[in-house]
Amino acid sequence: MSKVNVILKVNGDLYEVAVNPSKTLVEVLREDLQLMGTKIGCQTGDCGACSVLINGKSACSCLTLAIESQNKEITTIEGLAPSGEELHPIQEAFVKEGAIQCGYCTPGMIMSAKHLLDKNPTPSELQIRQAISGNLCRCTGYARIVKAIQVASEKMNKSAKES
Amino acid sequence: MYIRNFTYLEPKTIEEALAMKANLGIKSSIIAGGTDLLIKMKHHSINPDFVIGLNSIPDLDYIKINTDNELVIGTMAKLTSIEESNEIKNYFPALAHSASVTATVQIRNMGTLVGNICNASPSADNATPLLAYDAKVVIMNQSGNRIVAMDEFFKGPGKSALETGEIVKEFILPVPSKMTGSSYQKVSTRSKVDIAGICVSALISLDKDGKIAKARIALGAVAPIPFRVYKAEELLIGKIPNIELLKEASKIAREESTPISDMRSSADYRKAMVEVLTFRVLEASIQSATKKKN
Fold this sequence. Notes:
- The complex is a heterodimer of chains A (163) and B (294).
- Chain A has 163 residues and is of the alpha+beta class.
- Chain A has two domains: 4-79, Ubiquitin-like (UB roll) (Roll); 89-162, DNA polymerase, domain 1 (Orthogonal Bundle).
- Chain A contains five helices and five strands.
- In chain A, a hairpin with a 2-residue loop joins strand 3 and strand 4.
- The longest helix of chain A is centred in the last third of the chain and has 21 residues, at 142-162.
- Helix content of chain B is 35%, strand content 24%.
- Chain B has helices at 14-24, 37-42, 79-84, 86-91, 93-100, 105-110, 113-118, 127-132, 230-236, 243-256, 267-293, and strands at 7-9, 28-31, 50-53, 63-65, 70-74, 136-141, 144-149, 154-156, 159-160, 167-174, 180-187, 198-206, 212-220, 227-228.
- In chain B, a hairpin with a 4-residue loop joins strand 4 and strand 5.
């Protein structure tokens, strides 16, 4: 039961790391790749803090083995603003609408919002609420989070039309 | 919350996976979506020395109608695919509904229908629709395939007809006759996300005279296993549906349930809700069957 080499494609970059097969994706992202944006919450798939996109679909990185994440496109919160300066429209909307209190749920919330808006660019309020039902905010700032996703969707549709 | 280390095995064919499972027996676990298995491993309720991943085996993720007019769901089909499949939405709406309210978006993107059933939880959201649709479980082992009817698959909490060395290949569901309606409902503290406190499915087929030709009522989370209420089904057969009849069938469902009290619901509440939900799913099934008749 020794370490194995795994190759992960995260935010378009390839990383090769030696890990125990028992290591979860979130552990490798944070501890080996130093991508600390993805948070560890409940560790059992209930809270959504560890949400990332795997092949474009939201997934709990705490319930995904790193070894099973090979040959897949993984996107973390860092991948939404690669320059580190210019924010993604969803991030911008979260800041502007005050949808962040303690901030711990924010990366997971934004990844769930990204998954939703990629699939459905014009969601209803109900669809937004359903899409983030797997993400818990213990500051209970849901109203502003929903608003932020609505604002982001409008802005993204507007700029899509203009371009 | 760490997982004890293990050796990860990555078979390339199903034959290879079956050979591994046969050799390693209870020291090994199969991983599909991992959403149940890894939680059990984090809680150390199981600590396998070997984990066999099915990810690298091609062609296990499918949902299709076969030439015998049956729906076939492959072992790696994700709950999101079940929820979004047009075939399932059209012919098996109770299953599309139950899949859509199983856990969270993330878990549905990861977890498989087969995994939800193989864990044999009494409250598995998708068990009662599969019982109502007369699903068959195709089980593979090294000597070939065997088929187990859904109502003989569950043996107890966490226990199924699956034996060591076996892997589920697919579920087969016969496409119901035209004048059929079906429905699923659950009660839990929160509308989704939560494990069901009570879940109920029904299927009703009408004949050309409007009599009930086929009836299925299945209950979840109110006994050690999800089960069919044969006594209530028999009552309905050959009769023209009316409110009194449905009330009587719902009462039988209540009497046949043997729930426990736990953090999700009290036994009394579960019994009361079995009656309410059975009535509602029967009513909804009959309405949708009648619509198709006209």
